[in-house]
Recover the amino acids of this structure.
């Protein structure tokens, strides 16, 4: 079993991105899962070529992309990627697309194909706050997640993989500068990523438990 995990470069004036700090802490092996970590740029025109190159070289069974959602109080497993770019802020190259599809030939949305609810249950059992989120936003994280799933449906036989996206909260040192912002310690984020990968490697079917939310 091979897994590819990605994290994003810092963006929006932040000095660091917890998703990137966390994936750099991951071990090379997790039980019988061989892990590859890759860094993704917060640049619309560059992110999907970089992601595709990482997938081509890692030939993974599972891909978990991760990014920061500052202000979220919990590890957020994203259920759905939508075919729209609507950037609230410019990316790291100054691009700010508005209402542009991620893939002109793609469907409106894709669902994650990792067992999100089983992962959320395992995270909570380990004492980590976790939710299923129904929106990855309309910035680079959604763009990468949509591109990932678009790639997954077009993968050649033998190169088929399952994919999903995890949004992580601010680190405490980031939240300290934002009034009332929640945060999560780096060790917890790193542990959470490993739990999600272990669950995803062990299960293809998800639990049938309610995780519905207003948003
Ligand atoms: N978070 C941004 C893009 C990069 C990242 O880590 C987002 O949620 O879209």
């Amino acid at each position: 079993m091979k897994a590819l995990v990605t994290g994003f470069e810092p963006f929006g004036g932040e000095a660091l991105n917890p998703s990137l700090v966390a994936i750099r802490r991951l071990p090379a092996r997790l039980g019988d899962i061989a892990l590859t970590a890759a860094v993704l740029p917060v640049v619309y025109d560059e992110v999907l070529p970089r992601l595709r190159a990482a997938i081509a070289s890692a030939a993974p069974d599972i891909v978990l992309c991760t990014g920061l959602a500052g202000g979220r109080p919990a590890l957020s497993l994203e259920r759905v990627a939508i075919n729209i770019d609507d950037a609230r802020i410019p990316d790291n190259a100054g691009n700010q697309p508005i209402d542009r599809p991620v893939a002109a030939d793609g469907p409106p949305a894709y669902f994650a194909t990792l067992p999100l609810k089983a992962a959320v249950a395992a995270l909570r059992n380990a004492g980590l706050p976790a939710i299923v989120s129904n929106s990855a936003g309309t910035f680079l994280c959604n763009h990468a997640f949509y591109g990932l799933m678009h790639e997954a449906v077009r993968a050649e036989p033998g190169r088929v993989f399952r994919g999903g996206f995890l949004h992580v909260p601010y680190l405490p040192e980031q939240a300290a500068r934002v009034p009332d912002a929640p945060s999560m310690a780096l060790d917890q984020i790193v542990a959470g990523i490993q739990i999600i990968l272990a669950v995803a490697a062990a299960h293809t079917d998800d639990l049938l438990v309610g995780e519905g939310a207003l948003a």
Notes: The mean pLDDT is 97. The radius of gyration is 16 Å.
